[in-house]
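Proteins fold reproducibly. Next comes an illustrative record:
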Amino acid sequence: MGNAVIQVRDLVMAYGERVIQREISFDVNAGDIFVIMGGSGCGKSSLLKHLLGLLEPAEGSITYGDTNFTTADPVTRQLLRRRWGITYQSGGLISAMTLAENVALPLEQYSDYSASEISEIVALKLALVGLDGFQSYMPSEISGGMRKRAALARAIALDPDILFFDEPSAGLDPISSRRLDDLILQLKESTGATVIMVTHELPSIFTIANNAIYLDADSKRMIETGDPNWMREHSEHAVVQQFLRREADTNAADHAS
């Protein structure tokens, strides 16, 4: 299996009789920042849900290390999930809980740490994402960018091997988005975690990703894989080129007008 921490083979995603994507095969290597990209309606979020076990494949397999996640029993799946950290597009913080209580939740549920140890870990994780001193704040009392960082602190509470992100920069201004990208890079370097991300944000894709796949909505297939910077320069698929060059094309059109 080489350096792959995730192997996807011949995956078919479908809702009943309606096929979303077929024949998807790729590897995610240890330490990758791996991006799932494609146009609207191509199945990016559906693929993420399949990787998380929230949706089941119509065909094919998803393997984590030496474990076939697709055929694993519920106990084995749960043990695997404890090695993951997940952030959702909205952040997913519990509004009635403070930031400290949100970050402490996975530690309370899945660890044997004492209350004082959990408090120390929570303070450390919030400090790592630039929220030192915000333990007692409610999600409604901080900005959208800060909520994203608090959600990231919760995702890394258990020191996961793999971090999953669903549109992490959605709704953020460019400066906040860049700060979040920098933070993801820093955490990846400091923890050694592998990152899987769904995003359509070109600055994020080109700045932090080293591996990616492109899902095509028309053919319902994965038509490209590799470094997104390489894809932009060398892909033979026009739709991939259009997706990765759309910002430059827009800027050029604006300049010409």
